Amino acid sequence: MRQFGMVQHIPTPPIHPEKLHDLSLRGKDNTDWSRMHVQFVQEWQSRLHRVWTQPACDTPHLSNSLEYMVWYRKHTRQWISPSSAKEGYVVSTNLRMYLNNYL
Q1: Would 7 be classed as within a structural domain?
Q2: What domain range includes position 44?
Q3: How many angstroms separate the CA atoms of 66 and 9, rounded?
Q4: Which of these, 53, 74, 79, 95, could form a disulfide with 85 (CB 3.0-4.6 Å)?
């Protein structure tokens, strides 16, 4: 949502049955998968009715909420590789120093 100028809220966890990824299709030729997973089929078929819209955020920093940013930092990776981590650390340190001196 942030990439479209909206306030990002903490998303709800995805819904999926336990052991879904442990499922084996061997010997299940007669299984009607569309009936077995009807909840997910219906969700997919109604996806166009669940497009999120809201007014754009009118603050310059998209209203960074502390709660969201704490959640985000727990669920994302700030650095992808050691070299980007080193480069990113230098950039973020310089940015912090700049902000502390000029703001």
Answers
A1: no
A2: 30-101
A3: 11
A4: 79
Structural domains in the chain (count): 1
CB of 13 closer than 8 Å to CB of 71: no
User: Virtual CA dihedral for 57, 59, 60, 62, nearest 10 degrees?
Assistant: -50
Binning the chain into helix, strand and coil, the percentages to the nearest 5 are 50, 0, 50
Angle at 78 between CA 68 and CA 50, to 5 degrees: 45
b/e code 66-89 from CB counts within 10 Å (16+ = b) = eebeeeeeeeeeeeeeeeeeeeee
22 found inside a domain: no
One-letter amino acid for residue 5 of the chain = G
Q: In a structure prediction context, what are the per-residue pLDDT tens digits for the chain, which is 103 residues long?
A: 777 777 778 888 877 767 667 777 777 778 888 888 888 889 899 999 988 777 777 665 555 567 887 888 888 877 677 776 666 666 566 666 666 776 5
